[in-house]
Please model this.
Amino acid sequence: MPEPENPSTPPRVLSGMRPTGKLHLGNYMGALANWVKLQDQYECYFFIADLHALTTDYADTTGIAPNTLEVARDFLGAGLDPQRCTIFVQSRVPQHYELPLLLGMITPLGWLERVPSYKEMQENLTNKDLTTYGFLGYPVLMASDILLYQPQFVPVGQDQQAHVELTREIARRFNQFYPLRGREVLPEPKVLLTPSPKLPGTDGRKMSKSYGNTIQMTDPEPVVRQKLKTMVTDPARIRRKDPGDPDKCPVGDLHKVFSTPETLAKVYDGCRSAGIGCIECKSWAADALVQVLNPIQERRASYPETRVEEILEEGSRRARARAGQTMAEVRAAMQLSADGVRG
Ligand code: TRP
Ligand code: SF4
Model:
C-alpha cells in the first residue's frame, strides 16, 4: 500500500459500489474489508452508486432505493465508520449529474465503445435493452464520480481497472483543454488494486449474485451451516474412504481464506488421508465463517434505521461540499458562469 506523501494531509481515496441489494461475502472480502483498512490512512469517500443502477435498471427503478439502504447497512456492518470516512449516496449529490455533461463533451465515442464491459454486458444481459445513450456513457459517469473528489487513489478490483484507466484519459484531456492558471484541475487518480482472494460460491463457481450461489453478510448461523452442507466438494471424493484434495475443492478454498493455520493443516491432512469426512470439514469452514460474520451482523444491528438515514444525509452533505469545490474549479477552467452566479 502506498505511503501517504504528507502525513499532515492524508491523500484522498474514493470508491463506490452499486446498490445490488444485501451484499455477500465476496463483496466483503473483495472490497469492504479493504476499505475498512483504508479509513485510518486516507481521507476516504465511499458511496453507493445508485445512478449507476439506472444504466441497466432504468425500466424498473423500484428496487434501487431499498437496495441502497441495505448496502449502506452492510457498509456500516463491515466497519466503515462515519466518524472516520464519508459515506454518501450518489443521487443526493447533484454534482454527479453535472460533471458528466461536461466530460461527455470531450469524451470521444471511440473511447466508450472500446471499453471491454460495454459489448460484454450488452451480450450477457439480453433481457435488457442496453442500446441507450446512458449505458454507453456509463464510464463518463464513473469518471465524474471519481474526479469530483480529486482523489489520489481509487481502490477497485481488477474488473474496474479499465474504467479507472479511462478516467485518467478523460482527466488528461480535460487538463490539456482547460488548464486553470497553469494548474491541473483534475489530477489523474491511480488504481489501488484491491487484493481479492478467490472466493467460491456454494456451487464452486465464483461467488456472485447473478449465480445465486452466495453467502450473504446477513445470513444467520443456521443458514450459513445449511449452505455449507450443500456446497460442492472435490468431485474425486465420492465416498468417505476416498482421499480428496483441498486444492481442488471449493470448501478447501474457503478454509484457505477464513480458517486458522491449525485448522487448515487438519483439513489438508484429513482430506488427503481420508481421515476426516466432508461433513466435519464443512462444519469447520462454517465455524470460521460464523466467526467473521458475527461481529459484522452485531454492528449492523446496532444502527437503527433513523441513524443510518442520518449518516447518509450527513455524508452526502459533506460530499456536496467537496464536489462543489471541484465544480467551481471546473467551471472556472472552462470559463463557464463565474463563481458567485452559482454557489
Ligand atoms: N462501476 C463500479 C461497479 O460496478 C461502481 C462505481 C461507480 C465505482 N462509480 C465508481 C467504483 C467510482 C469506483 C469509483 O462496481
Ligand atoms: Fe473438500 Fe473438506 Fe471434503 Fe476435502 S474433506 S473434499 S477439503 S470438503
